[in-house]
Amino acid sequence: MLLFTACQKPGTTSPVASSEPLHTVAFGSCNREDLPQLLWAAINQSNPDVWVWLGDNIYGDSDTMAVLQRKYNMVLQEPGYQQLQANAKVIGVWDDHDYGKNDAGKEYEMKEESAQLFWDFIGEPANSPRRQQEGVYSSHTFGPDEKQVKVILLDSRYHRDSLARINKVYQVNRTGDILGEEQWEWLEKELKNSKAEINIIGNGIQILPQEQVFEKWDNFPAARKRLLNLIASSGAKGVILLSGDRHIAEISKTTVSGMSYPLYEVTSSGLTHVYSGSNVEPNKYRVGVLIKQVNFGVLNFDWSNNTVKVDMLIKGEGGEVLLKETVSYH
Question: Where is each PhoD-like phosphatase metallophosphatase domain found (predicted)?
């Protein structure tokens, strides 16, 4: 288990765990609180140092905060999750269902109240500066110098522009934004000032895949392009993307102009239920196969050489490895 220092910088940066390098990050999304909680035993067996919620952590879908609170409490009372909380640092972000409304963006009227419930659920202190910001984005740095991992979590709901849907098909908002200017400025500073060897960027919806017809960054192509350009221009080392939402799991890979290494995205979803549609879905960036069973994600870090080797894993109910990609970062 990692040991965390007591010092905290102002704003949205978490304390640095300086005693030893990070070895295992586990993550997942789409956790319907009234369905069987099948994966906590396998997640705990993976011995993660950090657990990352990637959204739809409950299925709240309500303007009534008492409803969201009750559903959060169901997860908090789950024994397997309590065991995880006792042994791992828990961080995370939301997506639409725990935000409070399906597919919602900045128009959701209860977002300020919902944000406070989210921070309660994730264990954010009552006096934390994060509780005063607009959105639930955050940054967390782990490990000693030269073996640091930074986890940057983006809020892709609170400031997101509207997205129309016609006959269940999402319409592209070509000039629309997702993050809002304050979050963009914060993200740029977090990346450009990062000294980490690995920089993980997580959010609720997929960033790289373009061909799927559901919610994705590519429904806002100007914002997607801005994000990829920012990652490249920042010079941040070892950027890895994490996402949820889709009720499937997959690993995507692309090259971005200005980056000296490939950009990977690991999508892990869902913890309690999966997509019941076609087994075939196009994704020109996919590495390996499409996973359609309950799953969670794991990143294992090997710091034994001058490079850091990262095993990107998708695991199933018994802890079995369903998908694996190994990448070394210099």
Answer: 39-272
Residue 169's alpha-carbon distances to 28, 104, 129, 161, 306, in angstroms, are 26, 15, 38, 17, 47
Amino acid (1-letter code) at residue 136: V
List the end-to-end C-alpha distance of the chain, in Å, as a whole number. 26
* 29-53: pLDDT as tens digits: 999 999 999 999 999 999 999 999 9
Judge whether 14 and 141 are in contact, CB under 8 Å.
yes
Query: What distance in Å separates the CA atoms of residue 178 and residue 104, rounded to the nearest whole number?
Result: 11
Token pair of 69, please? 């609170």
pLDDT tens string 165-208:
888 888 999 999 999 999 999 999 999 999 999 999 999 999 99
Query: Is 0.90 surpassed by the pTM of this model?
Result: yes
- The string of DSSP letters for 154-202 reads --SSTTPPP--EETTEEPP-TT--SS-HHHHHHHHHHHHT---SEEEEE
- In degrees rounded to 5, what are phi and psi of residue 181? -60, -40
Nearest alpha-carbon partner for 296 in 269, 263, 264: 269
Q: How many residues does the chain have?
A: 330
